[in-house]
Design a protein that fits this description.
It is built from 10 helices and 12 strands. It is α/β, with parallel strands linked by helices. The chain has an 8-stranded parallel beta barrel with strand order 1-2-3-4-5-8-11-12. A two-stranded antiparallel sheet has the order 6-7. β4, α5 and β5 form a beta-alpha-beta unit. α4 crosses α5 and α5 runs parallel beside α6. One of its GO terms (molecular function) is glucan endo-1,3-beta-D-glucosidase activity.
Length: 315
């Protein structure tokens, strides 16, 4: 079983009918959810988290990257206002400098990470709070078999230096891992059982490693990609993973319940390549009605009225 500490839930707030922040924090507590990710500093959420011991990933929104990359004083004031003002009452764990950053902004990730790290260092918080960035697994250009995992040529231009910096500061890479999208993109070559952790036996053999689920294969391809650029000691935190319960192909309540419960039960074992338990954040806490229609509105574990979409145990 996964250690209860290793399971968090992402708290997205793109809905106009979601509960007040303080009620959301209570919902985490009453369900035994011990970690949270928020996609930017929010004073009401941070205030509600004080004294709860809920571990937190807090994003630097992509829109802030340019200013933080170009100015160490902007980074210092960001850390002062959004981190130091709440520390240690809020249990910050990681600052995610950007989420799935793309295009020309990728060149701003590393300078922004360095400036945020320097600000944490000046505040004496560099050991307590780790600096990273959250990436889509699309940065991996070759993912099969997992041992051949390598960054795509476009991603390699910025990921190589990011991975080497993470190795230097002793921080993990945050990765958003979605077997759902791999499955719906290739239903002919990927079985639903392999995507849902329900395969009865080995599906992919890669040297001495045997893969019974797609999640492990995706994560190990990312480990392999990092190894090839000097990141063999860099860990991975699963900063998002989940399955939609409606609005698209294979998006059913029973598939979503099965995926997320199996994920929770699995990640404490690590992967075939690395047995280190994977700290994992499920996407997402709520169905969010201001996202695009279709699957995007249907990732939640809970409805906005705080009733579960399906039953799940975080223990």
């Amino acid at each position: 079983m996964a250690n209860a500490q290793s399971i968090g839930v992402c708290y997205g707030s793109n809905g106009n009918n979601l509960p007040p922040k303080a009620d959301v924090v209570k919902l985490y507590q009453s369900n035994g959810i011990t970690a949270m990710r928020i996609y930017g500093p929010n004073s009401a959420a941070l205030t509600a988290l004080k004294g709860t011991n809920i571990k937190l990933i807090m994003d630097v929104p992509n829109s802030d990257l340019a200013s933080l990359a170009s100015s160490s004083s902007a980074a210092a004031s960001w850390v002062n206002k959004n981190v130091q003002a709440y520390y240690p009452s809020v249990s910050f764990r990681y600052i995610a400098v950007g989420n799935e950053v793309s295009g020309g902004d990728t060149s701003k990730i590393l300078p922004a990470m360095k400036n945020i790290y320097s600000a944490l260092l000046s505040a004496g918080l560099q050991n307590a709070i780790k600096v990273s960035t959250a990436v889509s697994t699309a940065v991996v250009g070759i993912s099969y078999p997992p041992s051949k995992g390598a960054f795509s040529s476009s991603a390699s231009s910025y990921m190589t230096s990011i991975v080497q910096y993470l190795a230097q500061i002793g921080a993990p890479l945050l990765a958003n891992v979605y077997p759902y999208f791999s499955y719906v993109g290739n239903p002919g070559s990927i079985s639903l059982d392999y995507a849902l952790f329900t395969s009865p036996g080995t599906v992919v053999t890669d040297g001495s490693y045997k893969y019974q689920n797609l999640f492990d294969a995706i994560v190990d391809a990312l480990y392999s990609a990092m190894e090839k650029v000097g990141g063999s000691n860099v860990g991975i935190v699963i900063s998002e993973s989940g399955w939609p319960s409606g609005g698209g192909n294979a998006a059913t309540v029973s598939n979503a319940q099965r995926y997320n419960q199996n994920l929770i039960n699995h990640v404490g074992k690590g992967t075939p390549k690395k047995s280190t338990p994977l700290e994992t954040y499920i996407f997402a806490m709520f169905n969010e009605n201001q996202k695009p229609t279709g699957i995007e509105q249907n990732w939640g574990l809970f409805n906005p009225n705080k009733q579960p979409v399906y039953s799940i145990s975080f223990k």
